[in-house]
Design goal:
homodimer; alpha/beta; eight-stranded mixed beta sheet; eight-stranded parallel barrel; 38 helices; 34 strands; 17% strand
Amino acid sequence: MSTATGTKYVYFFGDGKADGNATMKPLLGGKGANLAEMNNIGLPVPAGFTVTTEVCTYFYDNDHTYPPELKEQVAEAMQGIERVMGAEFGSTTNPLLLSCRSGARESMPGMMDTILNIGLNDETVEALAKQAGNEAFAWDSYRRLIQMYGEVVMGMKPENKEDEDYFEDILHKKKEAVGAEFDSDLSADHLRELVADFKSTVKRVTGKDFPSDPLDQMWGAVGAVFGSWMNDRAMVYRRDYGIPHSWGTAINVQAMVFGNLGDDCATGVGLTRDCSMGGPGFNGDYLINAQGEDVVAGIRTPKLVEETLIEDAPDAFEQLTEIGQKLEQHYKDVQDIEFTVQRGTVWMLQTRNAKRTGFAAVRIAVDLVNEGLITPKEALEARRIPADDLNQLLQPIFDPAAKKQAQEDGSYLATGINAGPGAATGKICFHAADAEAAYEEDRDVQLILVRRETSPEDLRGMRIANGILTAFGGASSHAALVSRQMGKTCIVGCSELDIDYHEATVTVGEKVLKGGDWISIDGFTGEVFAGQVPTKPSEVVEVLIHKTIKPEDSEAFQRYEQLMKWVDEHRTLQVRANAETDHAAESVAFGAEGVGLCRTEHMFFNHLDEIREMIIADTKEARGLALAKLLPFQRDDFTELFRTMGERPVTIRLLDPPLHEFLSEHHLEEQPDLLHKLADMMGVASEVILRRVEEIKESNPMLGHRGCRLGIVFPEITAMQARAIFEAACAVKKDGIDVHPEVMVPLAGFSSEFDNQAKIIRDTAAEVMKEQGVEVEYLVGTMIELPRAALCADQIAKTAEFFSFGTNDLTQTTLGMSRDDYGGFIGYYQENDIIPADPFQTIDQDGVGRLMKIGVEGGRGSRDDLKIGICGEHGGDPASVMFCHNIGLNYVSCSPFRIPIARLSAAQVAVAEE
Amino acid sequence: MSTATGTKYVYFFGDGKADGNATMKPLLGGKGANLAEMNNIGLPVPAGFTVTTEVCTYFYDNDHTYPPELKEQVAEAMQGIERVMGAEFGSTTNPLLLSCRSGARESMPGMMDTILNIGLNDETVEALAKQAGNEAFAWDSYRRLIQMYGEVVMGMKPENKEDEDYFEDILHKKKEAVGAEFDSDLSADHLRELVADFKSTVKRVTGKDFPSDPLDQMWGAVGAVFGSWMNDRAMVYRRDYGIPHSWGTAINVQAMVFGNLGDDCATGVGLTRDCSMGGPGFNGDYLINAQGEDVVAGIRTPKLVEETLIEDAPDAFEQLTEIGQKLEQHYKDVQDIEFTVQRGTVWMLQTRNAKRTGFAAVRIAVDLVNEGLITPKEALEARRIPADDLNQLLQPIFDPAAKKQAQEDGSYLATGINAGPGAATGKICFHAADAEAAYEEDRDVQLILVRRETSPEDLRGMRIANGILTAFGGASSHAALVSRQMGKTCIVGCSELDIDYHEATVTVGEKVLKGGDWISIDGFTGEVFAGQVPTKPSEVVEVLIHKTIKPEDSEAFQRYEQLMKWVDEHRTLQVRANAETDHAAESVAFGAEGVGLCRTEHMFFNHLDEIREMIIADTKEARGLALAKLLPFQRDDFTELFRTMGERPVTIRLLDPPLHEFLSEHHLEEQPDLLHKLADMMGVASEVILRRVEEIKESNPMLGHRGCRLGIVFPEITAMQARAIFEAACAVKKDGIDVHPEVMVPLAGFSSEFDNQAKIIRDTAAEVMKEQGVEVEYLVGTMIELPRAALCADQIAKTAEFFSFGTNDLTQTTLGMSRDDYGGFIGYYQENDIIPADPFQTIDQDGVGRLMKIGVEGGRGSRDDLKIGICGEHGGDPASVMFCHNIGLNYVSCSPFRIPIARLSAAQVAVAEE
């Protein structure tokens, strides 16, 4: 905005009215907008003004200067404050004191600077002392101003441990010298001496005098607070929370009120209801006779508003209770407030929607509806229940007391990347085979699989273990992906662990744990503990999955059910499960409306002998024999899956991974007798097998002979899988279940590839249905997981009856980034703002998302009722689910434990667009 | 087209006019269109009619039936033939005989069937005998009809060696029985007996009589010829030559003329000028007293038109010469004709533009311009000189006589994939290190590097060798790509070679060659010979590069120069070279207008010690020390490159490959002392190096830590390279050369990646220019080689000053297909029509091409003068060059030896659109 047009840079508030309001957060920041709003609704707020975020932007664009209009607008607002507060800035009889606080659009607690008591100097301090009737109070306020101003404005803040802490050192020495235990033990004289010491130290260190002119102080404070927007802490915080640096901060200059004038004064923070578990009732912390910063600083232990304030200050308690109700009525949400009680009167310094745990979020949303404050639709707003937080209702947790104990007693070992939420404890086990052996011996064995990294060979071990802990890999490593899929607690990339398979030890610093020792992992936080920290399952899961609690006995479950009922009423996007037979029932309990991805190779890993025989076979006939052995296993698996899913559609993806995932040098090394076993089984020389292993080795397996490329070169694989699917479907249909199989061809890039496979599938289906004398409705479609498939979707949709975006692979190819290899740079990328988010967790909308849009447009252009879904990991990520809704997908598919989250996200985006 | 609208399915020609003309090839086929055209321009053509390709399509769409209108249209055309030829089909006094030939849009020589002498039966044969005054001729014609008809229409053709060859067996036995050496030794009675035998054999084998009704014969022939469109041979041919199966063939039914009525008759084929080297003058083959098929069958050795026809048949020779001139005047191109001389009169049976070698193509095009038949612009039409054929003027060749000798004397070993054109001979050498050692000893050593496959470690050995031969890999393997880049003769994937490095032998069947034995490879054909087959360099290259022939002494060179002058006058697309310092001069000689891709890592491979030191270094400082050692090498290289290229722009790509290409387990295995050498050099424990090697190992290197991801995580690498570039540029600028460096950031997918690197480059440039006191104009841009980069080109172009499409990697990621791994399926894909062409040779226009268009639109949307080029291998592929022109690129960049081809392609597409 041009400065020439007379832009309004300063928004005044005070005396029951304000220039701004709560909708103006981008311009006034959260704090400023809500200070204005509270004025507008008649709550007691000390008068003040907000300098807009546009000034911050101007400040950084113009070499730390201000728009020319600013000075006049500030002067005018100052007069307003003086008028409302009945005091004068710089007056030596009735001085007005000011605070100067940052206030960004999104809360950034503690990241930026604040200066209080602006306006004090050697003259005004005397006036304040007289007015307050409290000399020590006045000089202490002056002392605090010099300290804050020196640190924040004049650069005397100790940034590192080795830096000199000028003011605290002097204060400390003074207290020692006069035998004072607390600051409050210092007399007015002591404090006057301290002020002199502080001022001379400022001069000595900075070469400049502490400014005595109140206006100089105010402008110095404003500049410093704008400057703190770009301090290192604030930059890191914004990076972590995805706040753009370009937003800038607003500044609030406000009349001081004092909680430290005596025992009829107090200061505190509070919540209009409990934000940990969601229960009703005001609660908070306060200190009698204290200034706001003291509550946060933790020097004195605060008291609880809900317990003692009614006795300490019954009037204030009543005012607060009333204010809390008024705020909830007005904001229609739980508020997080700051207040000061000055001589019995409550002043509001801040209000904002309160942060809350997932547990609390669900309870508060449901309660607010029941209290009539909001509608069910409003309860679904994304800001009320960040969909990811639903996880807290589903995962097992550590018993809170036991965890606290573990944190304190030295059991804490290290922190890795929290890849699979939940809490788990078990005995350390290093190898999948050992896990299986232990499980054979004791079905209730408690294990944590501890690996440098995991591979598909570890799958069965991972299923048995309570949790998975790896030293390497990121949030999208094999261990992380599979754990999320299985709903297992998992920590990856815990690089402080030194794992020695040979010695069977995990070493962290000086601590050495052995195989069989207990270890506990918190997948919510990434913390690893030695020993056994007891866990408990989530109540919702006990009701839904384990059926160990009856629905009517669980309030938490009833609230979850209520919420999900509203969710399902509002969402239009369907939600399916990525699940094989063994997770199908669970996925239905979580609300899956079908299976979006059944990976047939998961079944193959249970029959490695046969699949290896198929790989080694060098003729179509020999391959056919091996495949014939696999057929009944596949058919039985599919039969069970179809029965569980009933009439819901079930998408079955044909064999996808490259053959070397089933047989490679790595397997031969790990199992020294495997080569001979295979040679004996196949009746061939070892050399034949070794040559085949060499043949199928690949430089870039992700871009190699996999997906439909296997089924094209070896059509008998596709034919066998199609036969298994349709034999199973016919059998279940005969039992009266109206099955809906959807056969999915993986990795097609050319329509000719799809057509080749579709013909085999359709021919086989016709053959089987004729044999069985049953008709089954089915679809044949493809995964869109290569850029070319999205670009040529119009061609592919001519014959494909559905699409499912495989966004894991689509991300890998579109970004040219392997999730197995991006560890070398992704950390650096995220820390240095090269990349906004992990593209394997949240869809890269500009790149991958654009391709998806091209794919949707192309596909629907050729077939306007084309059914389109997504079955990558992104299907369970809230932002990605919303994107999928926006580009018109029919469904998302995700791991069973992500289904409630996906449902909620789908409802939230639908509600947002209504 | 609906049959109800009375579509014209039959096109008559005869008596100097025709329903069709030469432009109607899609409908009438090539042969039919040109028969019509020859009629229209007054050449002697036996009357006939063409059944359109639409009938063929109808035939296949409607279960081998014809449109209802066809019968009547054919009957009408038959009457026309009878009228023009003054004979009657089926007449027992003046019978008309017909031929029935296929004729597709594109010539498919010998792939489909032909039936001659239609209309003969036991009655008409007597009339023919009487009319011709030659009983043996008539019965031989009848005998031929039954044989062709039996084989083609009635299914008696021997398809395999073991099948019975009914007719030839009977003929053979008859000749033995009567003591005849040639068919022509058989008397009319013998032939009459043969006819009877043939007819009874038809009945015996097929159960059906040979049809005596001439109309039945004609319709039978038409059906069989349409049927032959889908025979196996024809399908394979079309696949190989990229002819769509959907085109269908036309059929030409035409009055028979006879070259076998006596010694005033003849039959022949000819070219209006030499199509091997391009010299002027009619030349061809003919046989006196023979039918057309005899010339092709090779039973008698034909005579040469240009040598003896003037004596054998002076009138016919005069007619032919005149016809040849008339044809060239009319078609403005060399014609390939078939003719029959019947009793002294020449009849034309076919004309078409002649196929020619690359040598001939250039000479003919230039000569036709000089003769005033065509304009220079017409000379550039793509059909006259397929741009790829220019290669023949540039590559060394085997001495033709010596090669023929080698083919005949048993030196032939095997045939692989012709990956790098040219001919090369040398001593077998298995290891790059051995090649280097041999080269040290003898700078003129002649070597062929024979490897199972090649890797970057082999680069220096490949440079020394005359040619490269590998047992594995496809047309896009490392060996193939690098050879094309170096302009080296290369054969890859020669799977018959059994290479034993340990024994130092190459075995093919029973033949064993040792290291040091001579071997010769023909990169045009893929043939491998034992022994030394002498080669000679191309004349053009001798003039341009070796300067061993003066331009004025080489007519071939002068024609090349003339052509390229026209080329440069017409093209708008610029052509640059993919070249490092050592090929820069050569690229300029070939006409490069700049360097489009200088791969800095090629220089790194010459300084492996330093780059390995950089890799192992674990601090920024240690890396800096190693890089400081590399700086002078890079700077010297760039200085030389800039001097050679002068004022032409030079695009330098920063380090691209993953670090493990310089140091991996593979290197440590191949060089057992390397580990200790490195440990000593760096003063670190071997374990440190082994751990680092493990760290940088990748699962999918193509999608890993490479490209700008290296320069971002290790900014000191980028800084060093930028410094080397600008120090070199400043030095050269000081010498008065106005250098134009263009610094290219590889593998950027996010604009933030580009911005990060661009800042380092621009800061370094400013620093160096200040130090040196010189200003250098330069650009900073990026390779677009990831789908995301193309999709987000609008964002990247905000700061990038140029784009260069890296279509090798862009193809790999867009198609999800690694060129190192596609060997497992690409062969199957091409044989089975899954994929139309090798996407690494010709741009996949629907997929990769669409992304390129998105990239161009996005980039120019943000920066309308954005310079855009391509530097993948596709930059030298004619179809791809034309595509690049069409989507508006500024330049293509390719290997030096492909530059003339790219220039010609660029001119051809420009001419085509004018």
